[in-house]
Here is the input.
Amino acid sequence: MSIDELTDDELRDRLFERLYARLRVEHDKDPATLLFNRTPIAFWSSRHGSLLTVDKPADARLLRITLDWEHRPGQPRPEPWTASVFRTADGARLALTGSMEGTVEDVVDDIVQAFLNRTAQVEGMS
Here is the structure.
């Protein structure tokens, strides 16, 4: 079924399941990517001390994503990275705030890449 044929709940569930599955694949490649505390409406993943929260909000958003960074002593705590997934105005695509528009797979790929890039371990730091 195409995006515009799915209800918001169906699309929300599809996004949630695909994103969780992709992060499981990333865990298999890199055990530093952890998945835990999955519920019907949210799951959490961590990598190198940063925490990713993905949830299905009860509003117009399909998914809400928050990435809290690892806190380093002596440095100010950085603001979390937040993003949301919505339908585009025409209902035929998905939009990731501050990023791109596309299919379910496009958006899932973009979220996973953002998570991996933003949590990459810096050379010489643990």
In short: The first helix runs from residue 8 to 29. DSSP finds two helices and seven strands in the chain. The chain has one domain: 3-118.
